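Budget justification aside, the reviewers requested a transparent look at the raw inputs and outputs of the sequence design task funded under Objective 1. We therefore reproduce one unedited record. The lines immediately below are the structure tokens for a 438-residue chain.
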């Protein structure tokens, strides 16, 4: 067998294959044996039909054509891509084979491949260094959230206002038929939260313990397909009126809300956690800026199969997120005032950027001779196992064919991105006179 590879597009190659007649004979023999098992011929058992009988029954030309299509083309195509180091991204499009009995078989297969990327210089990518300062106000915000978490409710005698809590019996009916999904007893409801219907908040404001309310309201889209848009009658009994009381910011609060004995210790711990989070956020933002700055100067022809797969993945993930929120795609479009075409265009742009980033980082890793070790793969498997709360052996066993290669690819791309960031030139935005820093 002889084979050559020629580029036909930046992301496609044509593999030309020539198979000598003697190399073709095993494929014909395999076809004869298979047809011997499949073809029913009176007087012969399955698998025992002689070759000359099969040829006489279906014709030699049909036999040879079957052998070429089902056996020879797949076999010699696989050998050709292995010998030439071609890694197809798509199923091959095979041109009709050219064959005359007794002469060499010639055919061509066109496949999509990753493009060869001409990388611009990647040392010294120029970006503005992101900054994020943790202030006293940030710490105070965290303290306020802690206070909200441990706040107590106390009974009040004044009328209910927004932010207060009403303990109510709530009954919802439609044409005298009770709606179980909306009927509750001893329901602690925050006035102004709007979690049932907006009119409930309007009716509760200004009421006191013992008041009875009755009103009609149209259920919103969030009530579900069966109930949304229906007019429902609500009857409410206000059983208690309560107000949230926040604890004082003192050492007693620190002991109640945390493992610390003093407020100062709690503040110091909150500041440390915020600074750690800020450092991680700055590092992530720096990676994003450096990568985008480099991608802006690289020309990459994108294989459509990779873009299609990435777009399919992102569209499915988007649909899953909407499902988790209990929102349909049409409801999302209406709420966000977007169009289907706009969402699809945005998802495709995201997919194209992701594929471009993948290809560029892989090319950079190859240019720098980066490799992955078995230890790094094992460490990544353990990290993934810890993230999903599973045993590493379970994660390892769940890897499909090629799963190890996917992990190695992720590690290589991470290394390439780290290299790009490490050698970037960062400008401090607070110092106009500062020189770029490497």
């Amino acid at each position: 067998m002889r084979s050559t590879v020629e580029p036909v597009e930046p992301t496609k190659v044509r593999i030309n294959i020539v198979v000598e007649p003697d190399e073709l004979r095993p494929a014909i023999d395999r076809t004869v044996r298979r047809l011997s098992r499949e073809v029913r011929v009176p007087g012969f058992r399955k698998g025992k039909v002689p070759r000359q009988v099969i040829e006489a029954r279906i014709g030699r030309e049909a036999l040879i054509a079957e052998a070429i299509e089902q056996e020879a083309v797949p076999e010699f195509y696989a050998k050709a891509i292995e010998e030439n180091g071609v890694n197809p991204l798509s199923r091959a499009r095979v041109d009709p084979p050219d064959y005359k009995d007794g002469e060499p078989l010639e055919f061509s297969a066109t496949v999509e491949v990753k493009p060869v990327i001409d990388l611009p210089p990647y040392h010294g990518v120029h970006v503005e260094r992101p900054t994020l300062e943790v202030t006293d106000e940030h710490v105070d915000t965290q303290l306020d959230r802690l206070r909200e978490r441990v706040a107590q409710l106390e009974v009040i005698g004044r009328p209910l206002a927004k932010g207060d809590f009403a303990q109510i019996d709530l009954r919802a009916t439609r044409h005298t038929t009770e709606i179980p999904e909306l009927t509750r007893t001893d329901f602690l409801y925050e006035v102004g939260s709007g979690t049932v219907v907006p009119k409930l908040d309007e009716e509760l404001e200004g009421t006191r313990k013992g008041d009875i309310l009755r009103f009609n309201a149209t259920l919103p889209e969030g009530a579900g397909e069966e109930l949304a848009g229906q007019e429902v009658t609500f009857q409410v009994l206000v059983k208690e009126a309560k107000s949230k009381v926040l604890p004082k910011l003192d050492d007693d609060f620190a002991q109640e809300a945390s493992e610390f004995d003093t407020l100062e210790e709690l503040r110091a711990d909150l500041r440390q956690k915020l600074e750690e989070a800020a450092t991680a956020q700055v590092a992530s933002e720096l990676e994003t800026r450096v990568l985008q700055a480099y991608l802006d100067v690289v020309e990459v022809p994108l294989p459509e199969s990779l873009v299609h797969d990435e777009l399919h993945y992102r569209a499915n993930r988007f649909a899953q997120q909407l499902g988790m929120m209990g929102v349909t795609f049409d409801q999302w479009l209406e709420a966000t005032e977007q169009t289907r075409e706009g969402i699809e265009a945005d998802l495709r742009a995201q997919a194209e950027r992701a594929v471009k980033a993948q290809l560029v980082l892989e090319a950079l890793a190859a240019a720098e001779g980066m490799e992955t070790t078995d230890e790094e793969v094992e460490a990544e498997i353990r990290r993934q196992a810890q993230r999903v709360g599973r045993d590493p052996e379970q994660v390892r066993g769940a890897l499909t064919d090629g799963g190890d290669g996917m992990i190695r690819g992720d590690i290589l791309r991470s290394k390439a991105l780290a290299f790009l960031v490490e050698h970037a030139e960062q400008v401090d935005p607070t110092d106009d006179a500062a020189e770029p820093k490497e």
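The chain is about 50% helix and 20% strand. The chain has a mean pLDDT of 89. Computational costs for records of this kind are itemized in the attached budget.
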